Amino acid sequence: MSPAEEQSRQLADVFRATDRIVIFTGAGISTESGIPDFRSPGGVWTKYKPVMFQEFLDSEDARKRYWVYKKEGFPDFAAAAPNAGHQAIVELEKRGKLQALITQNIDGLHEAAGSSTDLIFELHGTERWVDCLECGRRYARAEVQEWLEAGTEVPRCESCKGIMKPATISFGQHLPEDVLTDAVVNSESCEAFLVIGSSLQVQPAANLCAIAKESGAWIGILNRDETPYDSLADWRSGDSAGEILSMMIELL
Ligand code: NAD
User: Fold this and answer.
1) Per-residue b/e over 199-227, b at no fewer than 16 CB within 10 Å?
2) Which of 6, 15, 51, 196 is the most exposed place for a label (fewest CB within 10 A)?
3) Whose CA is nearest to atom 38 of ligand 1?
4) Is 170 a pocket residue for ligand 1 (Cβ < 6 Å)?
């Protein structure tokens, strides 16, 4: 048995014994769908300095810079389809084992794979929609991309001319309190908490695994690189998320 098969078997053994599993995902689950993670060299996320939320509100120039990188990053999102890792989580739900799916991702791929929206907690919002910050009118992100490609530099609401922003949480913006509360409650009450594809460096999201550990849950970390929380993990793998998760489902 290869080390990856052995790790998948161990994961399947833990998951067979419980139906209170919380999955916590980050950008690493979506790299196999072609979306670069935060740290990939050359990825759009590493090329531009992030625009802070207050800057975005205050300055037209900051809004211009923000939309330049949003425009450039969107084709990766639009072209991406869920991969074996996303599908394995859908399978856990079908088998009645998934308590909650907490994600830092904004790509909407869990929903696209077929995970139920009432189990998904998007801590950092979603790139699928753009909201008017004045009147709340919501636009499909793909529609706004067409405006950008036609030459609009800073989109404005068609109803009230208000400032518009994708429904994602920017640096300096508070996480939605209800979503964070639900994420904490699920982390406290689960029996197994598995991190998939996150460097666990963005707070407060990263600390959810420590909350789960303190509440007595088994902790697994499936991430290529080391994370600051590895020492509290009961199980760890640095292999590909898609590979380990699909083998785990076969063995479950
Ligand atoms: P991160 O980029 O900080 O870390 C991703 C981790 O995934 C890395 O440590 C890497 O080693 C690991 N990884 C990459 N591919 C993997 C694979 N196939 N199998 C296993 N591990 C793999 O991501 P983060 O912790 O999610 O934090 C980044 C922030 O940026 C988040 O807030 C997120 O909202 C945002 N972001 C989202 C997306 C997305 O929605 N897909 C993409 C980039 C960044």
Assistant:
1) bbebeebbebbbbbbeeebbbbbbbeeeb
2) 6
3) 27
4) no
